[in-house]
Amino acid sequence: MHRLTSLRLYEKCRSLMTPLQRSALLTADLEILYLKPESLSDLGTLPQSVEVTHKYLQLYDGDITLTSDPYSGGTVVTSPTLVMGVGNCQKKTGAEKGKVPAEILVAARLTFQAKPGQPKTIDDEGLRIPPTPIYSQTTRLNTAVTDAIKSHPLAPADLIPRVEAEIEKLLKLRVLLKEELRGGVFDRATVRQFLADCEREFAHQLDEFSEGVGTSELGLSETETIRVKAEIHDGSVHFDFTGTTPGKNIFITDSCTIGTAVGTFISLFKAEVPVNTGVLSRFEIKAPRDTLVNSSFPRPLFLGHTDGVSFLANAVLLALSHIDPKLSWAMTGPSYCAVELKFENGSAHYTSLPSGVGATNAGPGLDGAIAWRKFVFGHSVEEVERKFPVQLLHCGFRANSNGQGKFTGGLGASESLRLLEPAVLRWSYLKAPQKPIGLNGGKSGQDSEIIVQRASGQKTVLPFAGEMTLQAGDIITMLSAGGGGYGTLD
Amino acid sequence: MSWSIGLHLGDHLVDIVAKNLEDRSTVKRRFFFPHTNAEAALGLVLQELNLNAISRLMLMTDLPIRLALKCYGGESAVLITSGFENWLEMTSPIKTPNFSSTAQRFPMPIERELFFGVTERVNAHGEIEKSVDPDDLEFLAAKLQLNQIKNVAVCLLHSTLNNQNERAIKEYLEPKGFRVHLSSAVSTPEAVGFAVDEKERFWTAILSAYVFEMFANRIKKIQAIFEPILESNAVITFGHYPLSDLWNGQVPLLQTANLFYEQLAKNIAGNGPVFYAGTDFFALLHGGGRRQTSWNSPWGPVALSAPAHATTRIRPLTSLAKNFISPIGFSSEYGTYDQGPMIFGRSQVPTFFDLMALNINPKDECIARKIAEPTIERGRRNLIEQLSAYKRSFTDVHSLTGEELGARLFELGCEILRDEIHAHLLDANAAAKLQICGPLAATLAKPLRGRLVDPALEPPCID
Fold it and tell me: Distance, in angstroms, between B313 CA and closest chain A CA?
């Protein structure tokens, strides 16, 4: 009855993790059992956070750590991750006296407002916290750490209250997980069987696709290019990013690249594919060091881990489309057009846009959607206008921005706002040399643009990132890209 | 003899409590009509109860929400601040759980083409920067008439600070025969008891406009069924609201859908959590007086004040299908009583309900057995054949029979439900105090027991 036992374990993980949004469940041997991502990069970076934390801090039952360092497995510095150990059995060799070694590790990630612009290093993007113990069963909350974080000028004001609320949630989950550990749900044989079943099923489902090799080359700027060689062969998937240039403005970590490549591939399956160690064992990903898909500290990562990830996903899809038409997905608008307005009173308004999703061989792309992130787009217009001296003039789909074809790409989005007081504008978005590409005769979608119209009427199309001072009456218009079309029009 | 009637109308279930006002005796009945709608069968129910004079009729139903979820709305349109015609659609959630090349939103209840922009603007201080232009209204009214619209939702920014523009639209359209649902009406404290942001306000007005016509038709049909036995001065209420308040807009239409939860919380929950095992859905009420202020509809938040509750992933009609991990498991699709469950003899897709029916003790009171008596043997045979066919897809369970596989799956479904309840409550002690009620409580109490005590098997009292 292996499959039903495996199903029970999977359903157990899914039910137990219901209260956590961006989260992961691993064994202490770092086998990934369950992932609940909010973005493609989470698929690689959530397990990596756990791995790095456990490697250096060796978690015991009830220990909770905090990290926001993308070079220790995080995604962006404004998305800190809590990692908790849960254990039930004291009889383990090498365990510290009186402590129960972790058998299960849980990661929970929080999302805070990001900071666009043109930072020089990762530390310009916000507070980077290396893996740090923040709670233990003996000392409880580590107030020395929380006080230090609270007083840091780059820490979000609500970071510690939200971390404390998440700790409370994790501690309640710990009680349930301990009960399951006592009941033997996570015993070695069941875990092994579950992962083996998933691996076997993934290999089996790969048979749906043709075997072969496909390559793609996608320019992010005049000097930055992603090259991918994708290969499906003998029940395995290989991605090789050899030939990708080093980053100049776009930098992505290797764990983020792994998550993006895997997540993009499984998004092409009809059925929901659980990402765990069993499935991941069928992937091989090569991201050469110091190329833009495997950047090193202290490169800034915000633009790479947002727009860059979308671009990377498109490059992977283009390579896959050469292997099998079933894997064809025209290019999705890659940029979120991130904008921040900082006003003289110190308040800051951040906004970004969804974009048009590329069409596939099965149907049109979705209008104005975030294909690779699950965050629900859309602030309250009234709240923005109450909190900040701006007036929104327009927010909706961007007409005629999609690529035509047998199946049309999704429409991009547009938003215009007028400043009622002076502000400093910071922005970053990908201005790639090519528009979102259509496939198999489908036309390209329109590219992203951020335009500033001065009160005098003078218009400027902004380059990929920067900072400028705006005056009352100036209008900012963000136009996100439309998705590429698929197939020729009859 | 004069009667006071409490009536809870589910999708295919009617709970009726009739109180004799002379001798104070009470008759309680529960009727299940899997193959037809509740209204159609209500006449038979009344015949069986042989009621002859009704002085009070108290209705309760979540029909407005069910109509919205099934996209059974009427001709309706939205007037929204110009420039924001697509904003609500763009901010509505994607329904696919994972990243997917086939990601979709739930179909909008009102088509994109029926969202019309109104050139007007109120600023964040409540000052009118641009008033509604009567010429624009004339043009809009013509478009609405052309599309045979009857109900119009008016959704203007900052209308809670100043609803002059919204009122101007209502005053223009109502004499022309349109029923107008203002978003600014949603936010009045008397209506829902808390302030709501524009997305909640807009969706509330839109869904109210969308379901109004169909809802009114259905309620009028129910009224007509009772008409011959209603006393001349009979009082008809929706919960505690006079029915007339519903038609004249004094009571928020969607809010009536939560009266059921209010009664459940009041009569059963006390301070502890309650698991409601209904025939359409399972819900967990958190208890302790906790409340929620909105309903996360498939399109966006809707202002609905109710006792805090969550519905579970496993529902009575959750379908069983192949998934990545197992040749058969619980899918994210749900069947309907029109077609299924298989045990009723029509559907070919097994559901959790079928597993329940297959695994109950024949001596237990069970809706599946009681109601589906004429078809159950054929349905049961088909179900077991289907499960046996699934069994063949397992490489490692040749020795199991179809029934045994059904038993394992039922056990698993109950375990998932238990885990969901625990995860929602995140508190083992609270789970120990959980009560279970509703039409399927008798069937589920035992398998869910272990951590659940005090199963309250009475249907919710509604009068």
Answer: 9
